[in-house]
Amino acid sequence: MKMSFLSLLEYLCAKVSLLALIFMALITFIDVFGRVVFNSPLGFAYEVVGICLAISFYAGLYHVHKKRKHIRIDLLEKLFYGRFGQFISWLSYLVEIVFFTALVIMVYQQAVESKNFGEIFMFLGIEKWNVLAVMSVLSAIALVSLLVTFPDSPSQPQDQ
């Protein structure tokens, strides 16, 4: 079985996202259970859940970009078909690439600044730049997915 590099990235990102969500749910359950039953919540639960949410989000973006499953407003979609619709589709795709590239750069810059400043998580005691570096890599992988997935050609409007 031959697997392409992009398929491997998609598989790994899906597994990372799934594991982050499962770990986030587990930590939340343990935190609430400890708070209710033993009156002793986990002190680091808030930070771990935030990290897991960010990792799940950035890892999940690979699939979102590849399948073009973004949240979108389709109120005017019936008006944009043919050449004009294709132009609008490509224009929005290019704007999306510009904004997402800016996001990748900003996450990377934040990781560098966090390392230089020496920020650490309050309860976990680990340096924040490590987590930001992981998010930077995952967002760059998601950018690759966006770059290789071109917009679909809008079809003729359907009467409903």
TrEMBL record:
GO terms for molecular function: transmembrane transporter activity. Keywords: Cell inner membrane, Cell membrane, Membrane, Transmembrane, Transmembrane helix, Transport. GO terms for cellular component: plasma membrane. Residues 24-149 form the Tripartite ATP-independent periplasmic transporters DctQ component domain. It is a multi-pass membrane protein. The chain crosses the membrane at residues 12-38, 44-64, 84-109, 129-150. It is found in: Cell inner membrane. Its main location: membrane. One of its GO terms (biological process) is C4-dicarboxylate transport. The keyword Transmembrane helix applies. It comes from the Bacteria. InterPro entries: DctQ, TRAP_DctQ. Belongs to the TRAP transporter small permease family. Part of the tripartite ATP-independent periplasmic (TRAP) transport system. The complex comprises the extracytoplasmic solute receptor protein and the two transmembrane proteins. This is TRAP transporter small permease protein.
